[in-house]
Amino acid sequence: MTRTAEQAKGRAGRLARLMPSGPSTAARTPFVLLVVLLLAGGLISLLLLNSALNEGSFRLSKLKRETTELTDEQQALQRGVDSYSEPDALERRARELGMVPGGSPAFLNPDGSVRGVRERATADPSPVTVPVPAPTKSEPGPTALPTPAGSSPPPPAPDSAAPATQTPTTSPPISPGR
């Protein structure tokens, strides 16, 4: 044998003395268990995190769908309100309730004098035909004086503080929806 073989044998012998000669499973077992537990814990935490994210995603899509449905319902309700607020619809419902379009208003000044000419509200037969003045019940009070159907009262004196009771012989045409 050569010197290099003896040196290799000597090295192997020295290394063999450093390593334990018996089974060394007792030293590896805790390390292997630790690695397995860490891997299992990581996988379980990833699974739980993925489940939580999926649950949040499903909840988000459900809330978006509900928001869309509620927005559609709100828009439908707004269209209904708008249709009831249209001038034609308001006029039709007012006529169904027995209301008639008002004439031109007269205003009382602070000193008691009347500004403008009061007109009697008349019921029109329909919004499409030419309005025909018809006497209606007037509100009780000092400004509502009943007059016979074919006559008109005399105009008030200019210095008078009493309200005007003059009714026009023809009422101005009323456009539908106004």
Describe the structure.
With about 180 residues, this protein is mainly α. It is about 50% helix and about 0% strand. The chain is built from three helices and two strands, in the order αααββ. The chain has a two-stranded antiparallel ribbon. Strand 1 (about 105-110) and strand 2 form a beta hairpin. It starts with a helix and ends in a 63-residue tail after the last strand.
Principal-axis shape equals: rod-shaped
* Helix/strand order: HHHEE
What is the first-to-last residue Cα distance? Answer: 126 Å
Helix content class: 40-55%
Keywords:
mainly alpha; rod-shaped; 2 strands
Question: Can I get a quick summary?
Answer:
The protein is built from 3 helices and 2 strands. With 178 residues, it is mainly α. A hairpin with a 5-residue loop joins strand 1 (107-108) and strand 2.
How is the topology of this model organized?
Blueprint lengths: L2 H16 L6 H61 L1 H10 L10 E2 L5 E2 L63
Antiparallel strand pairs: 1-2
